[in-house]
Amino acid sequence: MNMNQDTGHPKGLYLLFFTEMWERFSYYGMRAILVLFLTKQLTMDKAFASEIYGSFTGLVYLTPIIGGYMADRYWGNRKSIVVGGVLMAIGQFMLFASGMASSTLLTYAALGVIVFGNGFFKPNISTMVGQLYPENDRRIDSAYTIFYMGINLGAFLAPLVCGYLGENIDFKWGFFAAGVGMVISTISFVWLKSDYLVSPTGLQIGSEPNKARLKEGESQVHSAMDTRQVLAIVVGSLALFLLFHFAMGFDVFGAVIFAFAISIPMTIMFDRSLNAIERDRIWVIFIAAFFVIFFWAAFEQAGASLTFFADEQTDRMLFGWEMPASWFQSFNAAFIVIFAPAFSAMWLRMGDRQPSSPTKQAIGLALLALGYLYISFGVSGASGGSKVSMIWLTGLYLLHTFGELCLSPIGLAMVNKLSPARLASLLMGVWFLANATANKFAGMLSALYPEEGSSKNFMGYVMTNTYDFFMLFVVMAGLASVLLFILSRRLQKLMHGIR
């Protein structure tokens, strides 16, 4: 690997960039039209469609725990990515078939296949980015930001292509285009992985289980979760599921997601093979993951309530042409592609003077709150039935993009740097487990989106219009940001020299 450590990146980063770009094209293309397909073709009401959206996107981020475990213990990253890519392609073409038949049952089956495919794909490709670099290489934050550009280049193109096809021709063709994107992603990875996915010492990465990367002196017995730990997760999750579903009234999917979100991290923390420093660093991952739940619960309104807002309350006319509502989901991705290089260069230029990872994430939450505060001003004077300028929704997505660039790629890099090698993919799966919880929570919150002439109640807070709805996220993200700022110095100490 002859790239300069200060300025260059290995070629394998760009293969992972390309693979993830097309996978995200597939996922975000489907997501751009999902709630519109559910409400307009399958005639579901908005609240129920929001619950389906939240359950699906929550489960998408739950199953990486399975994929991470399989990669750590049995398959390695490469095989997991290929299996996941094939399953997701099948799921997208099943959605194409469900669009032809207007079949609710086939839609549920297709979403289920995508959920499991994503579980094998998502944590493993993210983990491989860090394996391209020597330990403690200062390019890693920059590498994850570049990798994040690949994610968002795909996410930018997806609503433009799949959204246009879905809204202007037929939903099934939007799903078909998403399936083609997944096929491109999988084939390119299979074709080029052996040439470019090599370690700094020239070894093939991801071909063996991650437990094979144990350092000298690390436990050979507890290289991944053993049978007792898996049993503890099953028993603990079952008990929590019963509590959430029957005692607290959560739906089945919500109860499953929230149960695993508690039982899996706690089981990992009781792993006897962890030394004191490893345990401290894992605590940082878990605490940061708790706070990003609030970020993504607000941010992921893009695929649900903000899509309803774009469809019904935003003036989308441009020179006599009406822009599809789904195209707004490209704005965030476009802004990321534009601004990610600047953020990457900024972190490199700051060097050791840059804020710690928890502080960057607190800044991200603050910017998210500002985005909702901005759009609240836009809708504060709007009367029932009136539409607001696109500038308000555009400004929200711009501020949310800045927040995302401070939080998401930094979080991926932090998990990679803090994780013991033998648990790398599993802990990346735990990080995505926070996204699972957040996405389910996002669907629950989107179901509170107020219909004209009605009101919704959330923990005593009554919402009668979109202004009230958006202010809920201002308060939620703002309080989380302040608390994380307060805790950031203590978390930095628990990272034991890693920034």
> How does the overall form come out from the CA principal axes?
globular
* DSSP strand count: 4
- What is the first-to-last residue Cα distance? 25 Å
**Main sheet overview:** 2 strands, antiparallel
Corresponding CATH architecture: Up-down Bundle
The total of helices stands at: 16
Radius of gyration: 22 Å
Low-confidence parts, pLDDT < 50 over ≥5 residues? 1-6, 216-223
Output the CATH topology.
Growth Hormone, Chain: A
- The CATH homologous superfamily name equals MFS general substrate transporter like domains
Query: In which range does the helix fraction lie?
Result: over 70%
**Adjacency order of strands in the biggest sheet:** 1-2
What is the overall pLDDT average? 86
Pattern of helices and strands: HHHHHHHHHHHEEHHHHEEH
Residue fraction in strands = under 5%
* CATH class wording: Mainly Alpha
Number of domains: 1
